[in-house]
Amino acid sequence: MAKIHWLFYIAVGLFVSISSWRLNYEKLIFFFYIGLFFILIGILKLIFSLIKTKMSKKEKVHHKSPQQHVKYCHNCGAALRHQARFCTRCGAKV
Q: Based on the structure, what is the number of domains in the chain?
């Protein structure tokens, strides 16, 4: 399911609210409040997206992965992980 951007909710809410207010407020009061509801949803989505990006930036700062030790194959010279027992390129035992 596709995620709808917060700005779209606010734009649609503003359009519906202003249109219903300008055309005939008494008959279209339901649509006026639906537009306000869309604006509220857009504002909440904006707040949650800001919180989410702030949290992801904190996680990136705190969870830096330690440098992995690299060793090289004695047969072909390919870079290998420290835990590797066999070369991934030529298959030689390390």
A: 2
Tokens of 3: 């995620």
Structure tokens at 29: 């009061």
Owning domain of residue 51 = 6-62
> Distance between CA atoms of 58 and 42, rounded to whole angstroms?
24
Please tell me the distance from the alpha carbon of residue 4 to that of residue 50, in angstroms, as a whole number.
Answer: 15
Per-residue pLDDT at 65 exceeds 70: no
Asked if residue 60 has pLDDT above 80, the reply is: no
Domain assignment of residue 55, yes or no: yes
| 80 DSSP assignment | E
Listed in sequence order, the residues at least 6 apart from 34 whose beta carbon sits closer than 8 Å to its beta carbon are 16
Same structural domain, 14 and 37:
yes
Whole-structure pTM value? 0.58
Give the pLDDT of residue 66.
54
